[in-house]
Amino acid sequence: MRTLFHNARLIDPASGHDGPGAVLVENGLIADWGEALAVSGNTATVDCNGLVLAPGLIDLRVKTGEPGEESRETLETASRAAMAGGITSMVVMPDTSPVVDDVALLEFIQRRGGDAGGARVMAAGALTQALKGEAMAEIGLMGEAGAVFFTDVDRPVRDAGVLKRAMSYAAARGAVVFSRPDTEDLSGRGVMNAGVEAARKGLSGMPHEAEWIGAARDIFLAEATGVRLVIDLASTGRTLELVSEARARGADVHATVAAFSLHFNEVDVGDYLTYCKTRPPFRQEAERLACIEAVARGEVAAVVSAHDPQPPEAKRLPFGEAEFGAAGLETLLATMTGLVADGHMDLITALRPLTSGPADLLGLPQGRLAEGAPADLTLIDVQKPWLCAREDLVSRSLNSPYDGRRLTGRAVRTVVGGRTVFGT
Amino acid sequence: MRNEPYTHSFRHRHLLGIAGLSRLDIEMLLDRADALAELARQAMRPEPRLAGYTVINLFFENSTRTQGSFEIAARRLGADVVNMAVQTSSVKKGETLIDTAMTLNAMKPDVIVIRHSASGAVKLLSRKVDCSVINAGDGTHEHPTQALLDALTIRRHKGTLEGLKVAICGDIMHSRVARSNAILLQQMGARVRLVGPPTLLPRGAESWGAESTHADLDEGLHDVDVVMMLRLQLERMDGAYLPSRREYFRFYGLTAQRLKRAAPDAIVMHPGPMNRGIEIESAIADGERSVITEQVEMGVAVREAVLELLVHGGQVTP
Fold first, then answer.
1. Can you tell me the ipTM of this complex?
2. Do the Cβ atoms of B49 and B313 come closer than 8 Å?
């Protein structure tokens, strides 16, 4: 079973390649790729019509409601939304009900994700038992069972001693730790970015320094223990500077940024729009631009959807009482192609934190055009204008802050393991 | 069994730790203990060299085994032994450690054997009394008689300590047994490795005389002559230092499979009491490579030797 995807503009951030060519797929793997491929005999062909063919997108931060809150999203509906968004691999978060803090639950997620039959589903394990921040979870056993990293998701581990021991333990097992940079004592009651907008609206704020202090603490502990740390969802320029400075000192410290942090600022919260209530919050325009510049400089390992589906009953509430979270799987790619259209960076730079960036962080074989790599591909019409309308979303929850926005760039075909799972 | 006369005398008044003992001191203790162990095996009693002497066992931490071992050793040598039950004594009534020491000192004992939960407590007491003090374990600092009995057990199996590869495995951070053993073994020319989860391997452990530290048990066991497992305190497994018992056993438990990494004639040791199925598999604990019960036997001989040499210096005819 061989398929040739030809007449494409191939973009491979891993090797820095950007040029016309084709990809030959055999048995679910990339058999060959390049400008001129000699193909013999029994090969199906897909004409890419000159569109961009890139490694399938990898999203490191997806929440579903499975198990426990399937009305928000299941692994299956999330997988379909991912495929529609050009995402071929996604990592689901352990903050489900019950929490994924042991091997049995991890294997449940893996099995259900496999059954969903679309995008590859990988699972992150809890760093501490029940995400309580008190006792470390079974990092070694879950790692052996295939947990790709360990995180307490939105809850920073409050006790620095617990975090340090968990990092130290993870380092010896070669496990990667993700942590949200936050200081609950400062931001615990906040519902949006602290500043003029919050003050005018009469809402309590989440200040920048809450994120800086959290990031600095976690970075120092990572340096002391030698663990690979990913500062998860950095939303200010200074947080990203802290990460880059640490890496310059030789620390194995990296950062992710949520797509919404690159697209929105606090003014978008507008008239108390609860779809715009996220953690981290939409910041000032200067911070948005600083995050974009960091991506353009290649200092952000991964841009993630931070997909957090919430049903209407969780969002149709006064702003302060509504749940945090925004659906993001179907707008991740358009956020990045939009930055290219706006002249912030070139396409290969925009695609790196969606492909080889996250793959290299976790040591995954996908996310690159390489012989023998999984044939996960996304065909992208980078110029395509479209209107994001919530009723058109595939995700079970429709809480997208992009609702009504005009976007540029969209996945037209998504291929997982050589099989087209979205588009024709 | 050696019969040569000693070439020097044992000049220590107290046995507070292995640190401070010379190689000759250690050899002298081991030689004497070895002779006493042989005597016991022949069902013979040693000379009652402590007849008329008073030994006080002062255990601030419960330990049936160690206290019993010291008591048997002292009685075999003819000493009068008093066990101070700390739970019921005036310590409970708020008396300070030093007051307790002064009070006991006034009773003119010849030797006080002390176990205390605070590192350094035995040293503090030794400064306040006129008699000999033996450290039976102070906090996470030292447990010298355990290291001596371990060394004697190894020497009886391997002939010498010189050049042996010894892996000490488990909760290194909280183990006084690991500290005393590491110091003694390197003093005697053995090559020590410390193996344990990173959360239980203290920084700078190399400086106690270990050749290397390992977070991977398989790596640490490679080609060793002696595997010394440590007891894991169950409270370490509540998640603060380790995720769970089953994860500990998976990565740090000694199994038959893992033991294959060691030299074919490697012996397995444990200071007891064991957590079977957590740090050691029962088949190994009870297997032919295990010398765990012999360690207990050597414990009495070593404590007899320590008592004799502290009281009489080197003036004992072997």
1. 0.84
2. no
